[in-house]
């Protein structure tokens, strides 16, 4: 399961960021511009997340153009944004605790979607990963790192250009560490002859 060695994971995140700083920073600017326009925001984010995941696995450098190159992710990105965003927003409005619980429950859903799952499979598998956890404190602390990075970006708005790629890279390493030790439940596929 995902260990609680946050310092080592963050060091790997920082090393990945330094090795891919140009691509990640330019890709993050594309993502931020996409969110200013609203419509392409989730799509650009999922594309860059998918690119970071592929680059972390293969060792190649991040291409910033991948933030807008992958046309097949548009509907999936909006489906995930709405399927997660609305319940989590309602949960935060209900005294914060339900929102935190849903955020923890779906912590890996964006990464699972970036790894090729459809929206509902990603949400379901993220829930299964959460329920299999034995180390709740480690899981919570790993979730807290992106929350702190988002808080830093909220305090100093210009810092979002740096915190967004760090958050994406940290999510990649949390996901790869978690899924390398736990077998994922693959969706059942029908074979049509």
The total strand number stands at: 0
User: What is the CA-based Rg, rounded?
Assistant: 16 Å
Largest sheet: none
- SSE topology string: HHHHHHHHHH
User: First CA to last CA: what distance?
Assistant: 39 Å
What is the structural class?
A: mainly alpha
Outline the low-pLDDT stretches.
Answer: 182-187
Mean pLDDT: 87
DSSP helix fraction: over 70%
How large is the count of helical segments? 10
Strand-residue proportion: under 5%
Describe the structure.
By secondary structure, this protein is mainly α. The chain has helices spanning 6-19, 21-37, 41-58, 66-69, 74-93, 97-105, 109-114, 119-131, 136-155, 160-181. The radius of gyration is 16 Å and the shape is globular.
Explain the layout of strands and helices:
Layout: H1 6-19, H2 21-37, H3 41-58, H4 66-69, H5 74-93, H6 97-105, H7 109-114, H8 119-131, H9 136-155, H10 160-181
Keywords for this structure?
single chain, 193 residues, mainly alpha, 10 helices, globular
Give a nutshell description of this structure.
The chain is mainly alpha-helical. The chain is 74% helix and 0% strand. The protein is built from ten helices and no strands.
């Amino acid at each position: 399961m995902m260990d609680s060695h946050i310092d080592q994971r963050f060091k790997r995140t920082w090393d990945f960021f330094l090795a891919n700083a140009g691509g990640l920073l330019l890709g993050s600017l594309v993502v931020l511009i996409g969110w200013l326009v609203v419509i392409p925001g989730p799509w650009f984010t999922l594309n860059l997340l998918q690119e970071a995941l592929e680059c972390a696995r293969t060792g190649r450098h991040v291409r910033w153009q991948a933030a807008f190159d992958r046309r097949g992710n548009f509907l999936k990105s909006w489906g995930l944004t709405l399927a997660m965003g609305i319940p989590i927003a309602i949960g935060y409005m209900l005294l914060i605790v339900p929102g935190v619980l849903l955020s923890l429950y779906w912590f890996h859903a964006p990464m699972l979607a970036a790894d090729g799952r459809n929206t509902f499979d990603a949400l379901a598998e993220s829930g299964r990963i959460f329920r299999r956890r034995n180390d709740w404190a480690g899981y919570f602390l790993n979730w807290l790192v992106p929350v702190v990075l988002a808080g830093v970006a909220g305090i100093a708005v210009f810092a979002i250009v740096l915190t967004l790629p760090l958050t994406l890279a940290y999510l990649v390493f949390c996901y790869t560490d978690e899924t390398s030790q736990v077998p994922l439940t693959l969706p059942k596929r029908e074979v049509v002859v």
